[in-house]
Amino acid sequence: MTIIDIQDLHFRYPSGVSALNGVDLEIARGERVAVIGQNGAGKTTLARHLNGIYQPGRGRITIAGEDAAGKSIARLAAKVGYVFQNPSEQLFAKTVRADVEFGPRNLGADEAQAVRLTEWALEVTGLTEQADHHPYHLSPAERKRVALASVLAMDTPVIVLDEPTTGQDHDAVRRIVEIIAELHGRGTTVIAISHDMDFCAEHFDRVVAMAQGRVIADGTPAQVFGRPDKLAEAAVEPPQTMRLATELGWDGATATTVPEFLDELRARRAAG
Ligand SMILES: Nc1ncnc2c1ncn2[C@@H]1O[C@H](COP(=O)(O)OP(=O)(O)OP(=O)(O)O)[C@@H](O)[C@H]1O
User: Fold this and answer.
1) Ligand 1 centroid – CA 45 distance (Å)
2) What distance in angstroms lies between residue 142's CA and the mean position of ligand 1's atoms?
3) pLDDT tens digit string along 91-131?
4) What angle do CA 158, 164, 166 make, to 5 degrees?
5) What is the value of pTM for the model shown?
6) CB of 17 closer than 6 A to ligand 1?
């Protein structure tokens, strides 16, 4: 069932930059979608249309059956949680807990529900011990996790993560991967913008490549990363396993993750 339907979306900034030039994209409930493309391709501009930060210049966005045009950010916040790339655009309260609690309370959760969602979000992001700290006394990587926790606590059917792994260490990335798996298990639709192709290939069902404000490729990681012409147009490198397969001279390699690569290696060895 479709949860997000974007048709012929165009958007121009007041400066005159034409950031979106006819985006068509349909996303099903529960899908994990990675949006890739070089700086300036329009990924963030597109994502910010999903929670009403930007309104379409032309075209139409339907979210959970409701036309997003003219809907306030507050109204769309119940459906789409948007985790900013830069947490300082998002955090405002004096303690981590207050920041995280704000969302569910604002959406009308009762006391018990707000506390339960807040504690869960703090726990899965590893912030329980910092709950009473001021967000600005935390490291930039921790602040980014507070921004994530604040959105998780809203328990929206769609979550958009703008560059979730940037600046995060190995443990924090593992946590993000676990959170995406948990959200997927709950049926949440997860959309991530990322420059980390290995992360996209390993943890997403679908990859959408953008260039110059348009979608230029859309499919499974193997389908999209198997199109060197499209990757060149989007100015992104394929995942490391595919680069390795190319170096090894494998024809028609489709492995986008390490386990798939190992399977393919074994199959090729067995075939002599
Ligand atoms: N606030 C703004 N005002 C004017 N132009 C903007 C603004 N934000 C983005 N742009 C321009 O719109 C185009 C699309 O930018 P956008 O940030 O959506 O791309 P992106 O694919 O998300 O890039 P990145 O990977 O760097 O985040 C670019 O040409 C960019 O310079």
Assistant:
1) 6
2) 25
3) 778 899 999 999 999 888 999 999 999 999 999 999 999 99
4) 165
5) 0.93
6) yes
